Amino acid sequence: MLEVIIFICCIVIILCIGIILGHFLKPVKKAVSSIDDGDLKYYLQAMELVARNDFDTAIRLLEVLCKGSPDKLYLLLTLGNLYRSRGQFEKAIKIHQGILAKPQLERVLRSQTYFSLGLDYKSAGFIDRGILAFNKVLKIDRHNTVCLEYLRELFEDSHDWESAFETEIKLLKLTNSKDYKVAAYLKSRIGREYLDDGRFSDAMKCFKQAIKFDKTCFLPYIYMGDAYIQKEKDEEAEKVFKKALEQNPKLSFLLHDKFEKIYSEGTEKPSEKLIRLHYEILEKAPDDIPTLMHLAEYYTSYKMNKDAEYVYEKILDKNKNYFPALKRLTELYFNTDQLEKAYTSHMVILKSDILDEKSYICSNCRYKSSWFFWRCPHCKSWDSFVKGLEEGA
């Protein structure tokens, strides 16, 4: 009797699994069957052309296919995506909106089309419409992590840091990820908005939470230090900035002016404390050209010419084409009547492949800018910008 009951239970379980699989595989089967053998041949040709980067020919082929088969919605979806890839956003949006206007659209195709429409709007710069489209996808498939990533990017682009943070937390939960770096940056931006609104205590809570998320995240330390400076608590600011340096001395160039303000404001003499801090940084990062440069300029501003000359020459030993050091050293030679050295240095400038004074590079996608960004404007990655001081960078 027991064996019979177990057998019946097994049959029931198998039937249930079959029904569930059939439910999820049904749209996929429809998608495949929606392209007949004749169309499939040309569709595959179009995809081969795409693989060869011949998008224009692929588009023309799909346009012919879609004219002959206006109800083949998956062909239209692909055509719209190709239009977007070529920057023809109006055509892409029109096609995807047309698909969504069809009655009784199957669930998977509706989700895919809203997703494509969201990408159309995102690529065209229509942030609010893109957010609406991606939210429609999430109503159909709330576990769509790719959609959540794009949605977070759009919230970031619109500076809606609260929504971007909430979306990032959803992503972390869905993917079981322990990488809270992006969450730390987003929480820092929320705190900065609070600080700008005069909500000091709320801002500090955000900065502390950001550091708990990821103690290597540099931004909350900077904002927290700025908050203390606003409250004229320079000693607290100094402590926070030094903690930041412990986490990432390579970003010390972001703190040079802040330390100078704390140590030198209101004094006529050079700050031994500031000079000592520079050498402490250089002990940990001896090739830190921005720190060497700031130290040399600090010496120059106080007429400590021998010290400045020594540091400028040290920079050029590390990177002979670094233009700011070449220029300032040449000026220093002229001002101290070292005319032969000034002439030689000037000739080096004329013959050299000089590097930009302010050059930052995304370590992820190699995007180059004269401005420092916490989030790369090209690949959208956080914490990827570095000083582009290496030759050939």
Structure description:
The chain has 393 residues and is an all-alpha fold. The chain is built from 19 helices and three strands. The protein has a three-stranded antiparallel β-sheet, with no helix packed on it. Helix 6 (107-124) runs antiparallel to helix 7, helix 10 runs antiparallel to helix 11 (200-213) and helix 18 packs antiparallel against helix 19. The longest helix is centred in the first third of the chain and has 32 residues, at 2-33. The radius of gyration is 30 Å and the shape is elongated. Residues 1-33 have low confidence and may be disordered.
Q: What topology emerges from the helices and strands here?
A:
Elements: H1 2-33, H2 37-51, H3 55-68, H4 73-85, H5 89-100, H6 107-124, H7 127-140, H8 145-157, H9 161-175, H10 181-196, H11 200-213, H12 219-230, H13 234-247, H14 256-264, H15 272-284, H16 289-301, H17 305-318, H18 323-335, H19 339-351, E1 360-362, E2 368-369, E3 385-387
Helix pairs in contact: 2-3, 3-4, 4-5, 4-6, 5-6, 6-7, 7-8, 8-9, 9-10, 10-11, 10-12, 11-12, 12-13, 16-17, 17-18, 18-19
